[in-house]
Design goal:
The complex is a heterodimer of chains A (about 260) and B (about 280). With about 260 residues, chain A is an alpha/beta fold. Chain A has helices at about 50-55, 80-85, 100-110, 120-125, 130-140, 155-170, 185-195, 215-220, 235-240, 245-250; strands at about 10-20, 25-35, 40, 65-70, 70-75, 85-90, 175-180, 205-210, 220-225, 230-235. In chain A, strand 4 and strand 5 (about 70-75) form a beta hairpin. In chain B, helix 5 (about 120-145) crosses helix 6 (about 150-160). The chains are: A alpha/beta (about 260), B mainly alpha (about 280).
Amino acid sequence: MSARTETQPILEVKDITVTFGGLKAVDRASLSLYDNELLGFIGPNGAGKTTLMRAIIGMITPVSGHIILAGQDISRCRIVERINLGMALAQQIIKPLKDMTLLDNVALAAGGDKLLSPVKAILNRSRQQQQEVANSLLREVGLAHSVHKYPTELPLGYLKRLEVARALARQPKVLLLDEPLAGLSKTEAEGMANLIMSLPRKGRSVILIEHNLAQVRRICKTLYVQHNGCHLAFGETEDVLANRDVQLAYLGKSE
Amino acid sequence: MAYEMIVLTNMLIAILFAQSLNLITGFCGQVSLGHAAFLGIGAYTSAMLTKSGLPLVATFIPAMVIAGTIGLFVGAASLRVRHDFLAITTMGVSFLFTGIIRKQDMLGGEMGIAGIPSPEGGRVGLLLMALCLTILFIIVMIYIKRSWMGYVFDSIAEDEDTASIIGIDVRRFKLFAFILGTAGAGLAGALYAHQVRFIGPDSFGFVESVTVLSMVIVGGIGSIWGVTIAAALLSVMPQFFQVIDDYKLLVYGMLLFLAMRFLPEGLGGLTKTFRKDRGQT
């Protein structure tokens, strides 16, 4: 909890409410994330975790609430602005660009202002610098041997790592990981969890949505629990998992 | 010789026009069913200017600027929707253009504009201008494809949502493609007006939009050489085979269907497959 002793959170989510028609998918959710922190975000299916994550990154517009990144209110910013202010998302359903190699997938994300300005994009041809960044990131996530392969040639475990590398290429202050262990074997999940554990550092924090409680328990020091769209518990992992309400709602047991 | 020159000039204008749509539909993945409207905007702009005494060469930039500027407004409004919705919206642009032209007496209304002056240098001059501009446009296309813009366009064409998550300003890039593509169509229109020397609203209707789209689809969406070959062949065919001209919409509609069903990557895709096969053996 050392990160939480700092005064200014890197990300503050304040009273976010998201509705779909008449249904309240997220109801006044609030959480804060500090620098160099790995925050586990759990909750049963349908708890609104992915919805809240999408609201944070800007894919969904909440009906109320505020999102503050590094002291700046970004609630009205478009997704592209939020990403360029320092957010990145690795999605649950991976979406690699299938016609590009892994190297090109990651190098593209490292394009910086060439992704924002068509004029800068048309005036620049060299990809060398971005490819060096991509090479180093793919090595960091354990894909050094597959940099020139296409996503269609690789299994899910590799593609999940590609998704993380591509998000890292944005040099995010806040990295949102949506169920990165879903669909992976026990060994793959453990390897991926080790990778996730290594991601937080000064200037980079991570929110991890995950159902694999064994791995979440192993790698996250703090947990946020959501149930039926509402905040249920927050605190140190072991305390939260021992909470009776959490056990009742999430684990289905009361003792 | 004069006939061959006309055919060749037609072919070059068709290539230029098809490449301008290839930039929007092929490179950036945005289907447009109203591209002929921008050919028309360029044609009307250029025809009006040469009729007022300007040389054809001096009308190229105004034709591109006016087509590109209207492209900017149309793009800003229509690129908010995607896929089939975009196709329907751009189809509306095509009908809107012909509808407006019909009611404008200043632009000749239903009767169109006749007596467009012969270009400087006559038929040979026009052929050379079409040749130079088409080659120049293709060089620009190749440059774009190899620049970061081509890299970004590839990602938008494949998956706009993923491109957004990566941090690409998708809306801005789509709009830029639309401006460049519509300006290119305007340039083709300037040449076209002086090739036929009579233009009317029906010269730039929905059929022409479908025709140019079929050139891009048959050539292979995004393939510069595939689209060049398809545009060359499909523009020449009606001039040699009267039946194709008589049943133009049917023939191009059928070609569109066949290409989408059996050759979704078009002629460009065929060469890619051939190269892959050779690489494997």
